[in-house]
Amino acid sequence: MIKKAGLVRSTFYNHYENIPALITAAEDKTIENIFTMMESFHPKDDRAMCKSFFLSICNYTKDNVFLATLLNSPRGDIFFEKMMEMFKKYISTVSLDDSNPNKAEHSKYFIAGSIGNTVGVLHKWSTSGFNLPEDEVAEILTTVFVTGILPYLRSSDT
Known about the structure:
By secondary structure, the chain is mainly alpha-helical. It has one domain. Helices cover 76% and strands 0% of the residues. The chain is built from seven helices and no strands. It is globular. The termini are far apart.
């Protein structure tokens, strides 16, 4: 693997203790990239904006061979747990109207549900060999978000 990358052993070991450390670093970088994409997503009433976001997530998943392979591997469970920890961090940073604490707490559950749904759909899509075009998967994710999650989040703004 090191030879394929065009590295000598000493260069590899200057950066990583071993192969599992490299895999962990790649997982962490992938999660960081997804988190960055999520932080830039501020949905309003614009279905096209939502679809654009989900299409970028689909493209990232399909184009990222490491992520697609990971979702289909035994390490997928470990990666999924790491992602859930990242999502927990993300949800805790979402600023919601504190005037109604129950509504704010419910909104965090809706956001968690949306994230879980998205990861589940991406996992299904990758394990099926990306059998549907990215645009169709993005439309499925958009429909679920716009018809199920977004109306509740909007109602919590009022």
